[in-house]
Design brief:
By secondary structure, this protein is mainly α. The chain contains 13 helices and no strands. The longest helix is centred in the first third of the chain and has 34 residues.
């Protein structure tokens, strides 16, 4: 890796660390704030349903944006838009318990997170050589999880002692510095061709799905790798409710859970950076997801603080390893000129699955049956295991015929 590539990687890591910390503060702090101010779990569920429904439209359309426009400019726009968004709320927010404003903050942050990661993945694919994909993805995963670990600890402290206003000030500062740092990335529009053909917008959108028409096993792998992330997103809803109503604990326990999630992801990222080219990734992720499914089942039947904290530790390890493996494999299997639309197609399906699950949970969930939600997530996690097994079978079959 030459000096320019090293500089670019450092720039991406530093800006991503700041923006990830800011988003983590909002997602953890605001989720707990809403849970504390509502006696019913349905309000937080409805917020996540609205966010998920919006992502049904934003996700695939964003894939077209990624493949059409300059990625550096797009990421800077995301950072600056986030800054303006949170600054607006800092100005108008007068009451920390205003649930409507809290809901909009949470939804906006979920959307910013959803569009940030595929844009960054596409940028990494263009900036660096294939042989570095696994290593860079591992480094970025370690960075993200260190940031989340700090955000998990900081969110509980800031919300508990200072409130939402001070949380927003920290978030705004982080995004401003992130956008400034990222502007130094050595990458211009003239260096890499930008896809601005006159192909219709919706035709571009359909091309993402058409790619998988003869490669359905890649689509199944992609969906399977997103299932741990789906479980994480739903845990953003069920986690605070489980801590408050089943474990009967406060935000400090929930913050500790999110910190343990980050530690698990950090462990996964470090191990992956060492072993990613030395082990069978598919076999590893199958075994890992099996253990993860066991943890989900255990918290359904044993409400225990330590067990729930270790569930989050393994949730982090599983989400992180799934993301690392899927990013590396998909980057090698999908051409760079269509990867944005292809991954957005997978994300669209995962968002639909997430929406169906949350709609189902919100319709019957109350403070007395939250453990049932985790039983449903256990069943969903089993589906990802079958998907990985099928992908592994098809990959072997293709290798044997070549």
């Amino acid at each position: 890796m030459n000096n320019i590539s090293k500089f670019n990687l450092f720039t991406i890591i530093l800006s991503n660390m700041l923006s990830g910390f800011a988003r983590g503060l909002i997602l953890i702090g605001i989720a707990w704030n809403i849970t504390e101010n509502q006696s019913t779990p349905k309000f937080l569920g409805m917020i996540i349903i609205v966010a998920t429904f919006l992502l049904l439209f934003i996700g695939p359309n964003w894939g077209v944006v990624i493949d059409t426009f300059h990625k550096k400019s797009t990421l800077i726009l995301i950072y600056l838009s986030s800054t303006i968004f949170y600054l607006t709320f800092l100005i108008i927010l007068k009451d920390n318990s205003s649930l409507t404003l809290m809901a909009i903050l949470y939804i906006g942050t979920m959307i910013f997170s959803q569009i940030h990661f595929p844009t960054q993945s596409s940028l990494v694919q263009q900036l660096f050589s294939k042989k570095y994909y696994g290593k860079i993805n591992s480094i970025l995963e370690v960075q993200v999880q260190v940031t989340q670990m700090i955000a998990g600890l900081a969110a509980g402290m800031i919300i508990d002692k200072y409130g939402v206003t001070y949380l927003l000030i920290v978030v705004i500062i982080c995004f401003l510095i992130a956008s400034l740092i990222f502007s130094f990335l050595k990458y211009t529009e003239n260096e890499i061709s930008i896809n601005k053909s006159h192909t219709s917008y919706y035709k571009k959108l359909r091309e993402g799905f058409k790619f998988f028409y003869t490669k359905k096993f890649i689509l199944i792998f992609g969906i399977s790798s997103f299932i741990p992330f789906i479980i994480l997103m739903i845990s953003n809803y069920t986690g605070p409710l489980y801590v408050k109503n089943v474990l009967v604990e406060n935000i400090k326990i929930y913050s500790l859970c999110t910190t343990m999630y980050a530690i698990g992801s950090l462990i996964s990222g470090i191990l992956a950076s060492i072993f990613i080219n030395k082990i069978n990734l598919i076999k590893f992720i199958i075994i890992n997801t099996c253990v993860f499914s066991l943890f989900i089942f255990l918290i359904c039947i044993i409400p225990n603080n330590i067990l729930f904290i270790f569930f989050y530790l393994y949730l982090g390890l599983t989400v992180s390893s799934s993301r690392l493996v899927s990013q590396t494999i998909l980057m090698n299997l999908i051409p760079s000129n269509i990867i944005g639309r292809a991954i957005s197609s997978i994300e669209l399906i995962s968002v639909i699955i997430r929406l169906i699950i949350i709609l189902f949970l919100t319709s019957f969930l109350d403070t007395s049956n939250i453990k049932i939600a985790y039983l449903l997530l256990f069943c969903v996690s089993l589906l990802s295991i079958f998907g990985y097994i099928y992908f592994n079978y098809r990959q072997k079959k293709l290798s044997d015929t070549q």
